[in-house]
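does this look right to u?? guanosine-5'-diphosphate version
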Amino acid sequence: MSEPEAPERIRNLGIIAHIDAGKTTVTERLLFHAGVESRLGEVGDGTAVMDWMEEERERGITITAAATHLPWREHLIQIVDTPGHVDFTVEVERCLRVLDGAILVLDAVPGVQAQTESVARRARRHGVPMLAFVNKMDRAGASFARSLASLRQQIHPGAIPIQLPCGAGAGFDGIIDLVRPRRLRWERGAQGLRWSEEPVPEEAQARAGAARDELCALAAEDDEALAARWVESGTLTPEDLAAALRRATLAGRLLPVLCGSALELIGIQPLLDAAVDYLPAPGDLPPVRGREPGGAAAARAPRAQDPACALAFKVFRTGKTDLVYFRLYSGVLRAGDALVNARTGRSELLQPLWWMHAEQHEPRAAFGPGGIFAVPDLPEVRTGDTLCAPGREILLEPPVFPQPVLKRSVEPRDPAQRAAVAEALAVLVREDPTLSLEPDPETGGFLLAGMGELHLEVAEHRLEREFRLAVRMGRPQASLAETVTAPSVAEGWAGLHGQDPGAARVEARVRLEPQSAEALSLERAPGLEALPGVDLEELMGPAAGAGFHGPQGYPLRHLRIRLEALRATGAPGAPSQELAAGAVAAAVEQALRGRSIVLEPVMALQIEVPEAHLAQVLADLQQRHASIQDVRAEEGWQRIEARAALSRLLAYSTAVRSLSQGKALFDLRPAGLAPRPPASA
Ligand code: GDP
Ligand code: MG
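got this back:
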């Protein structure tokens, strides 16, 4: 029986970058060098191991974060490959939530790009320490100096080289290691396998010495004893320097910068070394915080002896099986253990425990703190759930996902495939918390809501490819509701045989009362309230709690429905549930007739945008009739808070992206419902 890795030997890493900077290639190369992959995958010909979904291979981009792991220097590096496209921010957020460190990959020709900046900003928001890898040093026009300057200016003022490149473009063949001064040379075309170590050459000594001095000065900056030793001896030992660099990186004070070429397999081994040397182990992290079911604050330390707690950070369907990906924060989990889902109270049997390597898996007997693994067949577990040791429940804060913005109807092209489409959509929604599904009152079909056009397009393609279902998708739209603005009382009835006075008949009287937007949750349909002493459930069956729709076909919101009277005539005994429900529905309909108004969702927007793009973004918001509530500077960026009707924000993610060259970070949250202005009705 294998024992779990000690938490100090694990590095949980994300590889983050602007699209095409080389995340997938870098991951492939790391795997290759760790000896896991014997064959090198190439993104260009669609054989990369990590890009395994059909959709990804076809588009040549990474959509779903795939987990993998590799051994290096008696450590275990676990990597989650993340997507670069903004419509898939959910994947990036998920990864940042469960990862402890990140490698920020740059293309050495453009240096920092739009999404390098937003993804790094997200990482810093989560407090994830980073290394930067200036990739593609083999390209014509590659510049380490320019990339470093853009890192300092746009990502982190503490960006500091721990290597220098030897040559650039076609002449690039290695690096100078500044921590342990030496020249590393790779033979081009040898797949990174033939490389040598030499002393720093004469002509590079001045340049390397100055760079090392700068590195030592910064690393020793907040350590008096170390700074004194540096001043005294004029240098720092590689061990002292590495230890100081590790502390500074973990604290977020410095961003070590490396370089290489993933394509030519240059600089990959030192990148693995740096991940082990400078990025945090689960044991370096503070205890993870959450709440006990009673609401009391609780924490779990990353130790084997703490009660087990694991966060479900991803649900994914592969072939026929649903896989739930977990990160274990504390305790030891053995295959066959039962943990309690803190959300549902259900006990879940965790068996088998799979160690993932892209789409391959390997059963393992146990995982310890920091372990990342997947478990098949857990239909009741959702993304964001916490699973805990029985009796020691804790609810970890689930990852925060942005609300879906766009909604499109989905209809099977072949009506016979209705049930299959419903089932497939349910699978997609369970996997991706930024997708949501509701019935389409207009077509009787489904409405699928997501983060943007590409997001829904990928869902459509997945239906076609993975599920072999052809569908028709409608135009993007926002969801509407109905309410009344003044109290209204009405009666209604339902009977068995029309108006035959001798037959059973039920009459109901209801009162509708408008409620302020704050009084009711946006999501909840109004329940029916009865007079004291009346058991609605018994009277009307489970339908008593079901949502009503208004005469214009939208669900009712912002009002209270009070049942004031319910009377059966013509037949002895209690009224039948069916008749009672019919009478109440008729009374509600009557009370709404001619009075209902349409509500539309209003969104609270938070946009973070570089100063240079502020004016365009604000002008665009004004055109969308948004009310700007606040604009303020934050770390050199501008943060805008505004409100606008969702109908005015269709395709906003695409718009704000092009207005800001892809840099803006934005968050849209439902802020309530407001009457739809007559103009747009
Ligand atoms: P991702 O979108 O960040 O995952 O980027 P990929 O790994 O898919 O790489 C994008 C493109 O850049 C592919 O065509 C790669 O072959 C190419 N690429 C990756 N690394 C390098 C490199 O070091 N040098 C050069 N010249 N091309 C590279
Ligand atoms: Mg990729």
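The domain at 482-594 is CATH 3.30.230.10 (Ribosomal Protein S5; domain 2). idk if thats expected tbh
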